[in-house]
Amino acid sequence: MKEVFRNMSEPYFNNIKSEILRTDLKNNLEITRSALGETADLNIINITIGSTDCAILSIEGMASSQLLAELVFEPLTNLASEGPSANEIIDMLEKHSLMSTDRQLVTDFGKLFELLFSGFAAILIDGVPRAVCLGIQGFEKRAVSIPEAEQTISGARDSFTETLRTNMSLIRRRLKTPALRFELLKVGKLSVTDICIAHIEGRASTETINKIKQKLQSIELDTVLNAGYLMPFLDETYNRSIFSALTVTERPDNACAALNEGKILVIIDGTPGCILLPTVFADNFRTMDDYCEKPFYAAFSRWIKYASFLLAVLLPGLYTALVMFHPEVFPLKLLLNLAAAEVATPYPPVVEMLLLMVLFEIMREAGVRLPRSVGGAVSIVGGLIIGDAAVKSGMVSQPLLIVVGMTATASFVLPSLYPAITVLRLIFIIAGGFGGLYGIAIASALLIFNISAVDQYGTAFTSPLLPLRHHGLTDIFARAGFRQLAKRHTTVTDNSSDVQ
Amino acid sequence: MTKQKLSPAELICLLLCARSFTTLTLFPVGITGGLTYMTGALISTILQAFLLIPASKLAAQTRNDPCTLAFGRSKNYGKAVTIAFLLYFIYEAFRDIGDLAYFTDYFFAVNMTRVMTVLCVALATVYGARLTISVLGRTASITFAGVIIMLAIIAAGAAEDMEITRFDYAVNNLPAELAMAVYAEFSRCECLALFSFLAADIDGDPEKASKHYLISKGVIIMIIAAMVTSVLGTFAFAEKLPVFTLAAASENLITERSDAVFLLIWVMTGIVKLTTLLYCSARCLRLLRPSTSHIGSVLLAGSLPTAAALPLLLGYGWEKVIYSPRPAAPIIVLALIIPAFLLIDSPKSNHESEV
């Protein structure tokens, strides 16, 4: 028997997955122990019910001890007094017991191990080549808490957690429609991570759902530990564009709004970040707060975000280009001030700008990874002390520091675009510093080519502006009223499917 | 990237960017007044409406470009038509790339040599030309929105200096001047050849698209001509980059002059035009040599005009190219004669004649 499982160094357990359970209990336990390499967290409790030997298998920490005692040990102990045969025990467990809401009958070792590692307790009975697995999960999990990365003023305060089932329930609680569908898959050869594809039947494109399923099933990774692991496989333009046409959200309300628009949500067990796809560029500028405010203010706030994006990407590059090559565009007073400030510094504006931007990124990176109390200190040291000292020592000019400050603030307006903004900003500074506005024009053309080239699952990233979809456009430059939204708008599916 | 079709609006924007670049770069030489030029441009646009009928009908009927259709008739015929298109696109790309490098060097104090200027623009356009036509269409739409904004900024800043009397109504020989303006406008419409080549790529009605394009083109040319000549008068026809000169005099609350905005948009329209020309050239090359890879054909299409323009630019002989007359014959052949011939010779027409 052991020969079959001799090569236990094979990490994917392919040699045991299809092995069926034996009739002999001792044999089954021996195979289990051998396959799992006497792992310390495997609990095997042997019990004799009547004259039948049984074993209850569970993984420590994954199954709840209390539930195990209440739902498994107690009923089985009571049953022992009746002295049932093996067939009577399995009959009771399979047909007459209500011990757990999640009950599965297993005939092979692959499924048995999978369920054990998911927090199930398995009951093996001597003389029966099957196991009854009861869902009594009791692993530690984080409670639903306030979203950390996507703050809103008036939106909901709950966020996704690391537990897949909790995340599914957060969606179901908001969309009580039978059209909401969850499909479960397993990805990762070692981690066997549960992945759930959520969509609204009739809204999301069936072709896209099938494509996503196909892509997920073909992933050959050992582990899937967060959304980032799946992005290269799901994002069709991952290596071709600086922008990502997928959004990672931790807000259930955002996810529900997107599902209503015909998008697809991919929930990954073990991470609070869920993937929404396909995403359009304009989605980065929408927040749940927009739908809590009056339309005029929401539209204003949206325009502020568009302006922030342009400022964050273009301002340092434009400043460098104008100061170095086209100073004639500045009004005379400003020109004199700028000239006076720049004359006092030893480096050309492009070097100053690059230095400050890199320094800013270092300080930001330091602040992000540190505890909040220390993170604040980093901001004070970086922003106030180094900034002030740099100006006073004449290393950088004051106007340049103002530009960097404005740019940094603007870039925080759009957290989802931050990685793209950071890289683009540096490209524009280099382009402006070496080619003036000519360089900026070329970089702008390349940027527009890059944005236009993103085409995800048949949806252009520039949609609904290009190609033009009038019904989606109302929620891009302004915020559509709820009467209009009630007619249903979408940015990702065809016009034909928009009809109520 | 999926192969997608262009929307009619995207094709129109693509052609408008190409046409605007020519007008923004230089007004036709030898015309004496703004009014004459505008009238000539209007007449020319009306004539072009008739000229584009065969090309748009052919695209609507066959949904194929003239080169592919010609290959369908016979291999040699196909080769001849494709080479004709290819040579014209390369010639236009050569003029475009040279103009970009020459005027950037001439007007804008940029810390780059002409070689670097040419290389930068060539690489950017090769990057763009390897993408799909729908991507070029979307880029052109955004760029054309930039053209409108730029014109609005310049016009707002120069509004005080505009005077209708500078249109210069006095003309010595009106018919001759008008004929010259009509011809000048026609010979600068290389976008007609582009329309003939790309009309089949749209997902709408090519005939409607051609009408909308010509109306928009007429309006945009009139606006630019009116803006510039109302301030500069007849000097507009002697100036290099006349809109730049106007932009330099255009002041607003934030900036002292608007030439920076002009440079930004002018270069972008140039890149869009050049990218479209390279994309079309690469398609022609692949028709001639189907074994050529996509990137290989784009690189070859990009390197030919670059290599041709560089010696003239480095030898400071580009002025001759700028003021050399633009031939109208290729436009007539590519946008009228070839599509008309293919239309007459199309299987549908043959079938009808048999019946």
UniProtKB/TrEMBL annotation, chain A:
<dbReference type="GO" id="GO:0009847">
    <property type="term" value="P:spore germination"/>
</dbReference>
<protein>
    <submittedName>
        <fullName>Spore germination protein KA</fullName>
    </submittedName>
</protein>
<keyword id="KW-0812">Transmembrane</keyword>
<dbReference type="InterPro" id="IPR050768">
    <property type="entry name" value="UPF0353/GerABKA_families"/>
</dbReference>
<keyword id="KW-0472">Membrane</keyword>
<feature type="transmembrane region" description="Helical">
    <location>
        <begin position="427"/>
        <end position="449"/>
    </location>
</feature>
<feature type="transmembrane region" description="Helical">
    <location>
        <begin position="346"/>
        <end position="363"/>
    </location>
</feature>
<feature type="transmembrane region" description="Helical">
    <location>
        <begin position="400"/>
        <end position="421"/>
    </location>
</feature>
<dbReference type="InterPro" id="IPR004995">
    <property type="entry name" value="Spore_Ger"/>
</dbReference>
<dbReference type="GO" id="GO:0016020">
    <property type="term" value="C:membrane"/>
</dbReference>
<keyword id="KW-1133">Transmembrane helix</keyword>
<dbReference type="Pfam" id="PF03323">
    <property type="entry name" value="GerA"/>
</dbReference>
<feature type="transmembrane region" description="Helical">
    <location>
        <begin position="303"/>
        <end position="326"/>
    </location>
</feature>
<comment type="similarity">
    <text>Belongs to the GerABKA family.</text>
</comment>
TrEMBL record, chain B:
<feature type="transmembrane region" description="Helical">
    <location>
        <begin position="12"/>
        <end position="31"/>
    </location>
</feature>
<feature type="transmembrane region" description="Helical">
    <location>
        <begin position="328"/>
        <end position="344"/>
    </location>
</feature>
<feature type="transmembrane region" description="Helical">
    <location>
        <begin position="37"/>
        <end position="55"/>
    </location>
</feature>
<feature type="transmembrane region" description="Helical">
    <location>
        <begin position="106"/>
        <end position="127"/>
    </location>
</feature>
<feature type="transmembrane region" description="Helical">
    <location>
        <begin position="294"/>
        <end position="316"/>
    </location>
</feature>
<keyword id="KW-1133">Transmembrane helix</keyword>
<keyword id="KW-0472">Membrane</keyword>
<keyword id="KW-0812">Transmembrane</keyword>
<feature type="transmembrane region" description="Helical">
    <location>
        <begin position="219"/>
        <end position="238"/>
    </location>
</feature>
<feature type="transmembrane region" description="Helical">
    <location>
        <begin position="139"/>
        <end position="158"/>
    </location>
</feature>
<feature type="transmembrane region" description="Helical">
    <location>
        <begin position="178"/>
        <end position="198"/>
    </location>
</feature>
<protein>
    <recommendedName>
        <fullName>Spore germination protein</fullName>
    </recommendedName>
</protein>
<feature type="transmembrane region" description="Helical">
    <location>
        <begin position="260"/>
        <end position="282"/>
    </location>
</feature>
<feature type="transmembrane region" description="Helical">
    <location>
        <begin position="76"/>
        <end position="94"/>
    </location>
</feature>
